[in-house]
């Protein structure tokens, strides 16, 4: 279909900048995108009849990675410590 | 090892934006709001079972008027439980290690129980300041002691939670530093320290859950006296 109506997973890598240009970056647009992403993740991995630990574990692993990214600037200084 | 061992408790900041709000709100993602189905997914079923258990446990000693507090006490319990447990993951930040946050939770809730008691049944609330059967000469001293004990409750609530979690996180950090430092020198002692670290982590999981429970239980006890 036309570029502006395709989901992120259906967009080819070369078309990515053009697809980003068609997106709505207002606060409501961003909020809607976040909500859509969350509900698609939730319905695919958590809201299933026979889910397992995988759904939440991916979420927690993502949270750990995010926290690492947040504290990266601080942790970077540890490379140059003399005594660990 | 950090530049100082207390660096893990600094409020995370990214480009000047305080991230403590995001760390506090993250547990909300892990508790999906129940949809209109009778049989929900496994996660929601587990959580609903846990919430029912918590609510029953907290609300059974309270009278009917106290049941109005069910939602705030249960949600407080779940909030603290989630935050404490999430803090045990690597690199995460635990908001409940900040004294400011725990005092902000403890003080208003304790004050609410106190004011409820003083407003609705003032003589019974004040009567709690003197235990039954005290010998007459001791009465003035005991009233002073009980008043002090009453006024120190919010401080105790907040500091108990902060201190337990902070101490636990610090211990984990110290022992893991020892483990990695000893790895090159004496692997055997390092393995022993690793065992201690594993046991400590299990203890910290227990402490995280117990501290959340104790906080809310004490609040419900203060409520019982006053409602």
User: Number of DSSP strands of chain A?
Assistant: 0
Strand percentage of chain A lies at under 5%
Largest sheet of chain B: 2 strands, antiparallel
Radius of gyration of chain A: 19 Å
SSE run of chain A: HHHH
Mean of residue pLDDT of chain A? Answer: 84
Helix percent band of chain A:
55-70%
- What is the molecular shape of chain B? globular
Tell me the distance between the termini of chain B: 49 Å
SSE succession of chain B:
EEHHHHHHHHH
Pfam family, one (chain A): WRW
Transmembrane segments (chain A): 54-72
GO molecular function (chain A): proton-transporting ATP synthase activity, rotational mechanism
Protein name (chain A): ATPK synthase
Question: What this model shows, in words?
Answer:
The complex is a heterodimer of chains A (84) and B (227). Chain A has 84 residues and is mainly alpha-helical. Chain A folds into 2 domains: 1-51, no CATH class; 52-83. Chain A has helices at 16-22, 27-46, 54-70, 72-75. The longest helix of chain A has 20 residues, at 27-46. Chain B has 227 residues and is an all-alpha fold. Chain B has one domain (17-226). Chain B is built from 9 helices and 2 strands. In chain B, strands 1-2 form a two-stranded antiparallel ribbon. Chain B is globular. The N and C termini of chain B lie far apart (49 Å). The chains are: A mainly alpha (84), B mainly alpha (227). Chain A binds chain B through residues 38, 42, 46-52, 55-56, 59-60, 63-64, 67-68, 70-71, 74, 77-78, 81, 83-84, and chain B through 1-3, 7, 10, 12, 14, 19, 23, 26, 29-30, 32, 35, 41-43, 86, 89-93, 177, 180-181.
